[in-house]
Design a protein that fits this description.
By secondary structure, this protein is α/β, with parallel strands linked by helices. The chain contains nine helices and 21 strands. The chain folds into three domains: 56 residues, Nucleic acid-binding proteins (OB fold (Dihydrolipoamide Acetyltransferase, E2P), Beta Barrel); 187 residues, 3-Layer(aba) Sandwich (Rossmann fold), CATH 3.40.50; 141 residues, Beta Barrel (OB fold (Dihydrolipoamide Acetyltransferase, E2P)), CATH 2.40.50. The longest helix is centred in the first third of the chain and has 18 residues. The structure holds S-adenosyl-L-homocysteine.
């Protein structure tokens, strides 16, 4: 017999909130039944109305708060209530850092079974706004009008946006110039339902250290009407622009970028730097979105790797080689592996750009390539992993254990899979030395953590 649901639609009940979800909703339990309530914070009490009930959980609406959290903040963004971009602007900067530390602690305890591991306080930004170096804004035909902004939570409806306060102001301004030109010239926005229209997305990216900007106009069609007007107005108004490219995506798909990219004006790439490593970034390249905090994160990874210049290092899930190249300058040899072949091409180019000759990159699955390296006799002193949200394959963890590196540095974007993987690693003879959450995405619930592990018999 399934448990009966203790509440019904439209019930009004008094509750206490205990937690926050990934999209920033408050969590409360009524007789063990979970309800999600947007806008509420942990520690708060209030009256809610039940909106919807499902088997294991339901949703509610906040009617009034009877006890407010001391960490409640006034969200500065005027469209925060509707836009799905940010989740926790109503939580103070310190409240966000404390909460992220708590989430990591909770995952390590509940999932990993680690009850006496110290979790450092989250490293945050002094100014947790204007940090994003990239903005990509959907354009659509909506209610008979040109719509430009991000989607509502759990929806494909656009909330019109004039400014995004977590984005670098220069590119925030540039995408609005594109919007103005497109509206003035009557360029048809993309119509998803019919797969018609021209302009689908406007993307801009800035090198935070170099100030160089790339603008990407993503169109359904090969043709971009008023191309010359775009180029003239954009380059005259925004001298930071070093590259304007058009990306063509004719398909009916959620993917933003298509296969084909044409440079309309200027260079094919812009440059940026993380620490002392330079990167060339093209329209389709992955690049960390908050390079300031990335430097903080990699600084910790470098510290935990304990390099003297003599070590062999493996960087699993290396992307475009950001961590590999950062470490290569301080190690004897670095081996990077990544599943996306274009990213490996970028990694090789970036090694060349920096005159780094001791980094070797291979495309493939980490769980396939690393056992081959082991069979070839490669003996890493340090293994760094930076997997996607689903964490490492169990087989990779087994391979790592057989390779017995002195140190393992685990960079994680998901505390739950981090805890699961540490539970496999630690009993094989490793000690958790440091757990450091880093806030890479202020105003959102994303949590990045770097963990330093040391072999016990060292
Ligand atoms: N370390 C990089 C990127 C980490 S993101 C940086 O800091 O920039 C995780 C990366 O893992 C992505 O680039 C993704 O393409 C890659 N990936 C996903 N599954 C993989 C697998 N099984 N083997 C190797 N790489 C994988």
């Amino acid at each position: 017999m399934p448990e009966p649901i203790p509440v019904e639609k439209n019930d009004q009940i008094d509750v206490t909130f205990s937690d926050l979800t990934q999209d920033g909703s408050g969590v409360t339990k009524v007789d063990g039944y979970t309800l999600f309530v947007p806008g509420a914070l942990p520690g708060e009490k209030g009256t809610i109305q039940v909106l919807k009930t499902k088997k294991g959980y339901g949703y509610g609406r906040l009617i009034q708060l009877t006890q407010q959290s001391e960490e409640r903040a006034n969200p500065p963004c005027p469209i925060y209530d509707q836009c799905g971009g940010c989740a926790i602007q109503h939580l103070s900067a310190q409240g966000q850092l404390d909460h992220k530390q708590e989430v990591v602690k909770d995952a390590l305890e509940r999932i990993g079974g680690f009850s006496n591991v110290e979790i450092n306080t989250t490293l945050g930004m002094d100014e947790p706004w204007n940090y994003r170096n990239k903005i990509q804004v959907p354009v659509a035909w909506q209610d008979g009008r040109f719509a430009f902004g991000f989607y509502k939570k759990h929806s494909h409806e656009i909330v019109n946006m004039d400014h995004c306060i977590i984005t670098d102001p220069v590119i925030d301004d540039i995408v609005q110039t594109v919007r103005r030109i497109a509206e003035e010239k009557g360029i048809a926005p993309y119509d998803e339902s019919k797969n018609r229209g021209i302009l689908r997305h406007v993307m801009a990216r800035v090198g935070k250290k170099t100030g160089e900007v790339m603008v990407v106009l993503i169109t359904r069609t090969e043709d971009l009407p008023f191309r010359k007007n775009f180029i003239k107005e954009l380059t005259e108004k925004h001298p930071e622009i070093k590259s304007i490219v058009q990306n063509i995506n004719p398909k009916r798909t959620n993917a933003i970028l298509g296969e084909k990219t044409k440079t309309l004006w200027g260079r094919d790439v812009i440059y940026d730097q993380i620490g002392d490593v330079a990167f060339a970034i093209s329209a389709r390249s992955f690049f960390q979105v908050n390079p300031v905090q990335t430097e903080v994160l990699y600084g910790k990874a470098l510290d935990y790797a304990g390099l003297t210049g003599e070590e062999t290092v493996i960087d699993a899930y290396c992307g475009i080689g950001t961590i590999s190249l950062f470490l290569a300058k301080r190690a004897k040899k670095v081996y990077g592996v990544e599943i996306v072949p274009e990213a490996i091409e970028d990694a090789r180019k970036n090694a060349e750009l920096n005159h780094i000759t001791n980094a070797y990159f291979e495309a493939g699955k980490a769980e396939d390539v690393i056992p081959n390296w082991r069979n070839q006799g490669i003996e890493p002193d340090v293994i760094v992993v930076d997997p996607p949200r689903k964490g490492c394959e169990a087989s990779l963890i087994k391979t790592m254990i057989t390779m017995r590196p002195k140190r393992i540095v685990y960079v994680s974007c998901n505390p739950a899979t981090l805890a699961r993987d540490l539970k496999l690693l630690v009993p094989s003879g490793y000690e958790i030395k440091k757990v450091q959450p880093v806030d890479m995405f202020p105003q959102t619930m994303h949590i990045e953590t770097v963990v330093g592990l040391q072999r016990m018999d060292m």
